[in-house]
Design brief:
60s Ribosomal Protein L30, Chain: A; Alpha/beta knot; 2 domains; 38% helix; 20% strand; alpha/beta; six-stranded parallel sheet
């Protein structure tokens, strides 16, 4: 089976990551520029067929807006697992740093969080197989290609995954705007999996009870909360900040 990656940056990242690919489709309406020329050259260097198609055909194939006139046909994604993520952390010689997403519904939020996770140097991200936004072409586009570099795992049971994380000695830190402790004051060092919940209801009660720590972002304005992708990004980089300070001691 194959799938499609749309958007110039995601296509470039997929090629750079060595994702097995088959062909590149380019819209007949796409205006040549250095970025597009580089994509076409990269595809040809990889031995791929480059085909020019109508903008209508490209839109039908993509199934979403924002493809920017290019689509890359790639082999089905190879999913990772917790064992591989822990091995990556060991190879990087740091304590595991993971992201656990609980039922995000918006593919743009999913992609944005994966982009932040990759930029923060995470060892992997885990999310449910059911009841959540899939890693669709729109999500891959929103990730700006970060999904091609980050280890990703789909899990059947969040409860079992949480149990496995705890057995591996990883603390679960859940984002909860009602938490007593601010992320700025919490100890966010050591092996951590940050849990980000759904856009509407946040982290579920069951997952909160299983978490080792609940943290909130201090809000100075009149708005009560941030969206999931923004809040998750801020928490990820607070963890990065604290880990870097600990490493400098």
């Amino acid at each position: 089976m194959t799938e499609w990656i749309g958007g110039r940056r995601p296509v470039a990242e997929a090629l750079a990551a060595g994702r097995p690919a088959h062909r590149l489709l380019v819209s007949s309406n796409a205006k040549p520029n250095p970025e597009l020329n580089a994509l076409i050259a990269g595809a040809r260097e990889a031995g791929l067929s480059v085909q020019t198609v109508s903008s209508e055909q490209l839109a039908r194939t993509a199934g979403f807006d924002g493809h920017q006139g290019v689509l890359l046909e790639v082999s089905e994604r190879r999913w990772s697992d917790l064992t591989e993520m822990l091995a990556r952390a060991a190879a990087r010689q740091h304590e595991p740093f993971l992201l656990l997403l609980e039922h995000l519904q918006d593919p743009v939020n999913l992609g944005a969080l994966l982009r932040s996770a990759e930029a923060a140097g995470l060892d992997g991200a885990l999310f449910p197989e059911r009841g959540a936004a899939p890693l669709s072409p729109a999500a891959v586009k929103a990730s700006a290609g970060a999904s091609e570099h980050l280890l990703l795992a789909r899990v059947g049971s969040l409860g079992e995954t949480i149990h496995e994380l705890k057995l591996a000695g990883i603390r679960l830190v859940a984002a909860d705007q009602e938490a007593e402790q601010s992320a700025w004051d919490a100890d966010l060092t050591g092996p951590i999996a940050l849990v980000v919940g759904s856009e509407g209801s946040g982290v579920s009660g069951a997952t909160k009870r299983r978490s080792d720590l609940l943290v909130r972002l201090p809000m100075a304005g009149r708005v009560a909360s941030l969206n999931a992708a923004t809040a998750g990004a801020l928490l990820l980089f607070e963890i990065v900040r604290q880990r870097s300070l600990e490493g400098a001691r």
